[in-house]
Each structure stands twice: as C-alpha cells, then as structure tokens.
TrEMBL record:
Its EC number is 2.1.1.386. This is Small RNA 2'-O-methyltransferase. GO terms for cellular component: cytoplasm; nucleus. Its cofactor is Mg(2+). GO terms for molecular function: metal ion binding; RNA binding; small RNA 2'-O-methyltransferase activity. GO terms for biological process: piRNA processing; RNA methylation; siRNA processing. Keywords: Magnesium, Metal-binding, Methyltransferase, RNA-binding, RNA-mediated gene silencing, S-adenosyl-L-methionine, Transferase. Gene3D superfamilies: Vaccinia Virus protein VP39. It catalyses: small RNA 3'-end nucleotide + S-adenosyl-L-methionine = small RNA 3'-end 2'-O-methylnucleotide + S-adenosyl-L-homocysteine + H(+). Coiled coil: none annotated. InterPro entries: Hen1 (IPR026610), SAM-dependent_MTases_sf (IPR029063).
C-alpha cells in the first residue's frame, strides 16, 4: 500500500455500479468477444451465472462448469436449459453445456481441449493442499490457450465496512497485489504462459493507491501451436461426476 494512503481513513460508502460480480463477468464476456474461443470451462461455477451469460455468445460451441458443490449447480441449472425460442428458431451453431461435480485439485480428461478456462473468485476458497495442486491441473494438464483468474485484493479491504479479516467466511486467504502477482508470475513461468494484470472495482477518488477491489490475472499460452505437450500422468478414470448435459441443436 502506498505511503500516501497510510494514516488516512475512508469514511464513505463503497457502491459499485454495476455490481462487482457483474463487472467480473462482463470482463470475461469482453475477452470472449475479442478472442472468440469455441470451448470455455468455468471452474468454481457455483450458481452457473457466468455460464448462463456465456451461452448467448455465438462463438462458443462447448461450455463446461465445474464445482465442488452439486447442490448449488442443480438449484440454478434450469437457467441453462434451452428456451422455446431455441427450438422454434434454431441457431446456426450447436451448443453443448455440461456441468461436473469435482475438485480443481483433481485431473479429469473431460477438461482437456478447452480454449479458455475461467477461475472467478475461486482460488481464495482453496485449502493449501488444493492450491498447491491447482497450477498443475489447470496450466499443466488442462493447458488451455487462455486462463483468467480473479481474486480479492486485500489492500482494498480497509475500505469495506465490516471487513476485519476476510470478505467471506469460507476464504482461506486473501492476497495483496504483490502476493498475487508473485504467485501468478511463478506459475506462468513454470508452464510457459505470459500473464498480465488488471482488475475491476475502481477505488474512490483519492484512494487509488489501494488498487482494484478485484484483481485479475490473464494468462496466455506462449506457444499454443508448437509447444510440446506437458508430460504428466494421464488419469485413466474420470475424477468428476457429471451433473447435467444440455444440448442446443
């Protein structure tokens, strides 16, 4: 945190417009519009909101969601089902949406071959043992062309009323910008990715030193066409349980 911020106390009310979660999802949608991936996986998809938003992106042919909690997905997955208009006026493209229950610390062949993998507000929920395995699963095994990871910026917490330690009781940690960038750069170097940092949720005027409320790392595979595959043990059995498969034809 910059020295200009030290000793000052913010007494106003933080209100994000649009809401912070929508800003995170719109960030992903903007990337999809720009790079037009055909296969997208959302790890930690929870209530499937991001998947629901992405199903309207015409470039996407395959969507997959993964979450440790099947109940949350089942409660909201009705939003992903085809609408009557999808049958009356079929699209020129086909779309398959699949939901899986499982841990991001485990490898499953069903997650191979994706162009874009998103991890929106996920890593801070992982135990140390899961976080240790996460890079190898996502960057080593899945090895998509692009990975988007968002996580809270702990430097912003001093501006959030009622936040004394973490923003959510299930968070195992919250990193400042230096910690996140160090982890991200080490991961990118290890698996031959580049990484750029940005965020959403602008700080109040005069408090810019704290950075964005949500920090984001965008990882791009350096040699998607020519790099030799990462040598890792391929699992022989599925590690995830399929919760739902939806077809839009």
């Amino acid at each position: 945190m910059g020295k200009n911020f030290e000793g000052r106390q913010f007494t106003g009310m933080i209100k994000f417009t649009p809401p912070l979660y929508k800003q995170r999802y719109e960030f992903v949608k903007d990337l999809v519009r720009k790079y037009k991936p055909k296969k997208v996986a959302d790890l930690g998809c929870a209530d499937c909101t991001l998947l629901w938003m992405l199903k309207f992106c015409s470039c996407i042919e395959v969507l997959a969601g993964l979450d440790i909690c099947a109940a949350v997905m089942k409660e909201k997955m009705h939003r992903l089902t085809p609408l009557p208009a999808d049958y009356l006026e079929p699209s020129e493209r086909s779309l398959t949406v699949t939901l899986h229950q499982g841990s991001v610390a485990h490898k499953d062949p069903c997650m191979l071959g994706f162009d874009l993998v998103t991890c929106i507000e996920l890593i801070e929920h992982l135990q140390d043992s899961e976080l240790e395995k996460f890079p190898e699963v996502v960057f080593g095994f899945m090895a998509p062309s692009m990975v988007v990871i968002s996580t809270p910026n702990s430097e912003f917490n001093t501006l959030l009323p009622g936040v004394t330690v973490f923003r959510h009781p299930d968070h195992k940690f919250e990193w400042d910008r230096a910690q996140f960038q160090s982890w991200a750069q080490d991961t990118a170097q290890r698996y031959d990715y580049s990484v750029e940092f940005t965020g959403v949720g602008n700080p109040p005027t005069g408090m810019e030193d704290v950075g964005f409320c949500t920090q984001i790392g965008v990882f791009v595979k350096k040699y998607p066409q020519t790099r030799e595959p990462v040598l890792c043990e391929k699992p022989t059995e599925a590690a995830y349980k399929t919760v739902s498969i939806l077809l839009f034809i």
